[in-house]
Design a protein that fits this description.
single chain; alpha/beta; Rossmann fold; seven-stranded parallel sheet; two-stranded antiparallel ribbon; 7 helices; hydrolase; Alpha/beta hydrolase; hydrolase activity; AB_hydrolase_fold
């Protein structure tokens, strides 16, 4: 009888907790306020139906492999496959709404991170500008183009981590941050030098995956 009661209590306690490590396409049906959530937005080439399209210069974009590489037991990874001809501004609104839903369900801002590469990074920047939250974390991968730097209406908020490739035409986020005065809580940037240009981020290369995951799992202010 004692063993049976212990089993019931253990089962109840275990089932009442949610753990990270999941790879999802959208928010889970049940949001646990103590969990951490990371959103990943892919590059433009993946928009459509093919998760592994091939670029004539930069090779194959392996979306499934990137999701697997970014996944971690400490957080839920939400990575939606956008349809062709997605409007980045409308999609950023949807992304911001998902984040807002997490916040309304009691998830602390410090438990939420948004990661985006290229077009996905542009979407991430727009979502950041829409949310205007100083405690959410954002990772921009090779997306700080001169065009983004000139868009005064898009300001980065919160904690920003930027990664760019030295052989790529898309470089530092310094200019974007410089005009986002008073909205960036913290800023860190690193560069890779793989020689693979924009294609550096087409696969889960350790040169960017490792530092991004380390930054996502850093101790954040509550």
């Amino acid at each position: 009888m004692l063993q049976k009661n212990f089993f019931i209590i253990f089962t109840f306690l275990f089932s009442s907790f949610s753990y990270g490590g999941e790879i999802l396409e959208s928010l889970p049906d049940k949001v646990n306020s103590s969990d951490k959530y990371v959103f990943y937005s892919h590059g433009f080439i993946v928009e459509g139906t093919d998760p592994t399209p091939i670029h004539e210069r930069w090779g194959q974009y392996n979306f499934p492999a990137i999701k697997k590489g970014l996944a971690d037991s400490s957080y839920h990874l939400i990575a939606n496959h956008r349809p062709a001809k997605t409007d980045p501004f409308k999609y950023a609104e949807q992304l911001a709404k998902q984040v807002t839903k997490l916040l309304k369900n009691g998830v602390p801002s410090s438990n939420i991170s948004l990661v985006g590469f290229s077009r996905g990074g542009f979407i991430t920047a727009i979502a950041s500008s829409n949310l205007k939250n100083m405690d959410i974390s954002f990772v921009i991968l090779a997306a700080c183009t001169s065009g983004l730097a000139k868009r005064a209406k898009i300001a980065i908020y919160g904690h920003l981590f930027s990664v760019y490739e030295t052989s790529d035409s898309v470089g530092s986020c310094d200019d974007v941050v410089a005009r986002s005065v008073g909205t960036v809580s913290s800023y860190k940037e690193i560069s890779t030098s793989t020689g693979k240009e924009h294609g550096t981020f087409f696969t889960p290369r350790k040169e960017w995956i490792v530092p991004v995951k380390v930054w996502l799992k850093r101790k954040k202010p509550q």
